[in-house]
Amino acid sequence: MKNIYVLEHFDFTEQQMEKLKSLGNIKYFQKATEKQTEEAINNADAILLDWIDPTEIITKMKKGQFICLPYTGYAWIKTLKQAIENGVVISNTPNYSTNAVAEAHLSLMLAVSKQIPYFNNFTKNKKNVPFNRSIELSGKKVGIIGLGHIGKRLTELLQPFNVELYTYNKSNKNISGIKDVSLDELLKTCDYVCITCSLNDNTKNMINYEKLSFLKSNAIITQTTGGIIDLFALDKILSEGKLFGVGLDDVDQLEIPENLYKHENLICTYHRAYDTSESEKNRIDMCIDNIENFFKGTPINQIRL
Question: 297 Cβ partners below 8 Å, 6+ apart?
């Protein structure tokens, strides 16, 4: 039997744990110590971890061992190339939270449009609610930056709102009903701008002060991947009284301008867009499938650099 080391807590269902046990001998740690991690590196055929940083672990693993990274993005792991060259097989879990993030994006759009947190604050604190009129999403021009899995799902969720869709990508998508435009045209044209592209060297702080200045004075911009909007530029734009509002997820690991959170038309969530009961089940199912297929000699979702 193969040895499977789970280095920290996962919310396995009973069925998921039974499936995992059928694949090999399970060594399960709520949170592996350094000694237990070394044991896994020396003895495991497959390793599963969650929040533990895999950077050093994968460099110590040997040829033919397998590790499953239970997240979609992995560009931040600087030792991947070294580990893969050493013969370690590494898989990730792509697109497990596509629907969750797309729904979160739509929620941010509506929450900003209707100023829900703003009015909620006044109501709960028993203050007189100021006259501050909201806007409707229906019939507006919506621009999506990055029409990947999340962006495409967001376009589906937007269908009942009868919006006019625009998109900016590195290359044209040529999808019926969605107009391919340049980034500058999208920013100047759209009432809502939704950023769903991934963070990389090309997109980091891509939406800087100049780009934000192109937006309509009453525009709404939302983002579910931190780092693409330059937050210092955003703080300056909001301080100048521009934009109807902003909705951000995943800013908790970024440097935040001192006054950013003071803007009442800004909504921030703590990297929660991906995290639903359904996406967690998808993620764990995919991890188990990755391990099973590796043991069969047919790895899936394998990272190749």
Answer: none
Q: Is the pLDDT of residue 129 over 80?
A: no
Q: In the prediction, which pLDDT does 180 show?
A: 98
- pTM of this structure: 0.92
Q: 45 vs 21, 36, 42, 117, 298, CA distance in Å?
A: 14, 15, 9, 48, 15
Give the model confidence (pLDDT) of 33-87 as tens digits: 999 999 999 999 999 999 999 999 999 999 999 999 999 989 889 999 999 999 9
Tokens (6 digits) for 125? 């604190």
What's the pLDDT at 131? 75
- Contact status, residue 196 vs residue 151, Cβ threshold 8 Å: yes
Paired tokens of 255: 């440097």
Query: Is-contact 91 290, C-beta < 8 A?
Result: yes
- Look up the CATH superfamily of 98-269: NAD(P)-binding Rossmann-like Domain (3.40.50.720)
Just give the CATH number of 2-96+277-295: 3.40.50.720
Question: Is the alpha carbon torsion for 23, 26, 32, 38 positive or negative?
Answer: negative
Packed helices 277-295 and 98-114: angle between N→C axes, nearest 10 degrees:
160
